[in-house]
Amino acid sequence: MKENIRWKIWIDRGGTFTDIIALSPAGKLFTHKLLSENPSLYPDAALQGIRQILGLQKDDMISGEKIEIVKMGTTVATNALLERKGDRTILVTTKGFGDSLRIGYQNRPDLFARNIILPEMLYEEVLEVEERVSAEGEVIIPLIEKDIEQSLRHILSKGILSVAVILMHSYRFPEHEQKIGEIASRLGFTQVSLSHQVSPLIKMVSRGDTTVVDAYLSPILKRYIASVSENLNTEKLSNKKSLEASTQLQFMQSNGGLVDSEYFQGKDSILSGPAGGVVGMVKTGQLAGFSRLIGFDMGGTSTDVSHFDGEFERAFETLVAGIRMRAPMMHIHTVAAGGGSILYFDGARFRVGPESAGANPGPACYRKGGPLTVTDCNVMLGKLQPKHFPHVFGKHANESLDADIVEKKFNALAEKIANATGKPKQAPEEIASGFLKIAVENMANAIKKISVQRGYDITKYTLNSFGGAGGQHACLVADSLGIKRILLHPYAGVLSAYGIGLADIRIIGERQVDHPLTNHTIKFLKKNFSELSLEVTKKVLEQGIKRVNIKSIKKVHIRYDGTDSTLLIDFGTITFMKKAFDTIHRQRFGFIAKKRKLMIEAISFEAIGESKTVDESTGFTNQNKTESTPVDFAMIHTDHSSHTAPIFNRSQLSPGQKINGPAIILEPTATTIVEPGWQAIQSELSHLILSRMVPLRKNRAPGTEASPVMLEIFNNLFMSIAEQMGATLANTAYSVNIKERLDFSCAIFDPIGNLVANAPHLPVHLGSMGESIKTVIRQNAGKVKPGDVFALNAPYNGGTHLPDVTVITPVFNDDNTNILFYVGSRGHHADIGGRTPGSAPPDSKTIHEEGILIDNLLIVDRSGLKTREIMNLLRSGKYPCRNPHQNLADLNAQIAANETGVKELMKMIDNFGLDVVQAYMGHVQDNAEESVRRVIDVLKYGEFVYNLDNGSKICVKIIPDKLRRRATIDFTGTSPQDAGNYNAPTAVCKAAVLYVFRTLVDDTIPLNEGCLKPIDLIIPKDSMISPSYPAAVISGNTEVSQCITDSLYGALNILASSQGTMNNFVYGNEVYQNYETICGGTGAGIDHDGTDAVHCHMTNTRMTDPEVLECRFPIRVEEFSIRPNSGGQGKFKGGNGAIRKMCFLEPMTATTLSSHRITDPYGLNGGQPGARGKNYVIRANGDIQFLRGNDETEMNAGDTFILETPGGGGFGPASS
Length: 1216
Known about the structure:
Number of strands: 54
Shape: globular
Helix content: 25-40%
Structural class: alpha+beta
Oligomer: single chain
């Protein structure tokens, strides 16, 4: 290495440890690790570590003459976000949108939680301002500056100094935001974050969240930077004369680039440390000669995984700590599986995490009385040897890991498992192996999400393993994924700090353009890139980078017109960009739509100031020419047997030395396990490269009898496959309903049509889809051929309502003689015909008024897609589909989703064997059945009568039989089949029962057929919950399903009524059609308040962002807010409903299907009912028209539709 004049120091300040790498003036690298929080010894870990490296005392000054640069990744802002300890912040936003960030996209995070807990908001107060700009830039309501100033003065008097300003459409038309920002700065607000500067992209909700994060965290960062700068004697960039005698301070941003401390913002700090790990993973992988990489960063509490295939992958919309971030961030997926993940046995399954033992008490082996964890598994298996592990434990921090307590605890756990299962006691090593296998599969599934689900064949990749625990599990994770090569850098244990040192300065600028990709686009794009490049490059030049050392990357965000999913494409010629888009779209989603218009949503310009890097050709090379010998031997348990494994010291390995597994390789910051069948070789650069030398054996499970280990693994595998199906469907669908509102579900079924596993999508789909599968089985017995695919939406044969179309794929064995299982996907099509756009006529009397009936239609056979037959059906009848080509595109997407499921299930069979897979399809249902039986064990008799707005009623009795451990759900007395459309198909009724009983299980079991096995259902035929052809059903799926769930909770006496409706709002004309379901209040429970303005029970669809909505449709959203005082009073209060107010800009037909407009959402045990909903129109001339719950009206330009959704009921009498 070239000699330096001063030290260069790279720091990763993590949540538990702070890692430091220092490059000395002589060119030597040093590593150091210390606790991030140790207030009794030092106030700041980063500064303390620097002092220790320089040999200074605690309070000694750090001379700028000794340190040239400090590059740091920090969790200071991240911790403040997680702990909600940022600065007091006010949100300033357009009138009518004060609750927009709280409501978000209206979905709930936990599908089966009765007590819905939403993330805590970061802002303390909201100021709604009178102003409005249209999507085209027209000023509808001008900003009155004096009113703003008066309001902000009042806020300032309360001591709030941070302000976040988010106005509708300010990403393109920022003038109003700029004026408010000027006023706030003039008044003395110390932090002013304007959304058009923080995130200049469409989507008010996520841009708003990002802006609030910036206002909330930036002051914290500024104070921390000031403290560090003061200790390091840094100078401002503008003071160039003093820079040579001072220390330059840079921070790692979430986007993977460094930036001077003066430019470091709260919005860019969230993934500061993990981003350094990705940079380190990529840079070291490239130095080792590998271009396709999977990053595997396993620490104490979690594992971060990432993907690299030639360029950094960034996400432009990310959910962090419940906050939607609309800013470029490294695409990192985190799973709660680390060395400290806690092990437990629930009576049937082994479970790993998500809870962690942390650093205190830590794993059982840490001598602090902690629980068994993944780390303890490796101690039990001999993979972590106490005498070769740092002796830093015990009362005086000088003892080794405690292997004795680990063995004692595993023996006790083995006894517990034997007693619960009635099987012979297993050896503690087998118990530990089982838990470790589950942890490995959890991490492998996380890697699949960022690779396989996105169309990458990772068997051709190299796993770059790092983090303190990565090397212990790398071989096992690689085997689970079919990866055959692993890289471990010499600094794998501190690779995030190393990556921060290797990173470049990067500034990314973005601009919304919303322009079609045509032959006239290039000139337009060049102009925008020219303007953007001047802004971005200037910031890099100001950080001391010479222009000759600046590279740039130009990207365009391209999507199909009418969709929301953009792909990042290199800027080039029109032909180049179209071809690149097609290539990536086909790889990612499996298809391209040649006739569909392409849109450029945004552009990004990245300026890169290249940093000097470390020359690894001399820095790490071990000069030892003699192969080292083992320093010890240990007995380890792996691959179901014991082995004597040599232990090597990595620092003593010579270049080219090969070590065959099993073996243990030690180093100061990590331990690497070379599993049997693997070989490790030390490269010339001291990189440890592991390769699988012996082909991996088929992973046959130990028989078809239920095993607590394999039960958990198959639970997770089945769920993962359903999630992969869902990802394919969301990515490939045409319809906004499927792609953006996520109104779809995917699931796996056994050979007789029983639900095995599903992704957590919509409960009303999931519980009912099995009836559709059974219809196809029954009606095609003996006639199904390999390659056949069926479609169905018939409500009397397992469907819900006509827009929900189910696609079913049978899967045959290799010789095509037997059907092994079925996969299914159900998606809500935007229009399936019918009398009104969106297929939701409010007054339908027969099914044919609601659209095209599809009953057991063969849509694919060996000859391919039966396009002619499908299109003939969609165009038939009195009310044909309005856009059959869109229906066909969505059917294709559902077929593709099913194919994903088939492919992954066949891989599972290849791995475990057909008999085992089919056995576990039964075992996971048995496990769910037992979980519900435990609920029945404590269930009490209950009955309830639920009255609907139309005079109908749902009667239900819940009758537990404790001796047989069964329950009867009897709906006798429920009203007859409705003459209108308030009829719920039998499948919907079953889905509601399945959902309710799943929510009674306080555990993470999959929703499957087993939940219904101990339940006897009595559903009267020809009733409103079991109608016969040709009954209309459009309200049954959305409205009656909610009523059934609330009637069941009333009988159980545990949860007051929710809003009891989905508030279906459909509007459109011949050109535009849109469908919304609108959130409301949830019912209070026996120990909790209800939740305001959120979707509950049988739905969980998303709401389109208001800015996106206004760009697509001729409407203006004037308000989407929480409806005050609409929740029922009680000891625990019901959640408030919502208010949605929309002005129509051209004529359309508006239709509502909604309930609780006449009846009250009930309270329980003395709790008061929630407020009823209201639907009405304010005409352009001021007239008010009140509508029924189910109604239809013609909207003219200037008319405003207002929908006030019901609140939830209260629980228990309110205290006087």
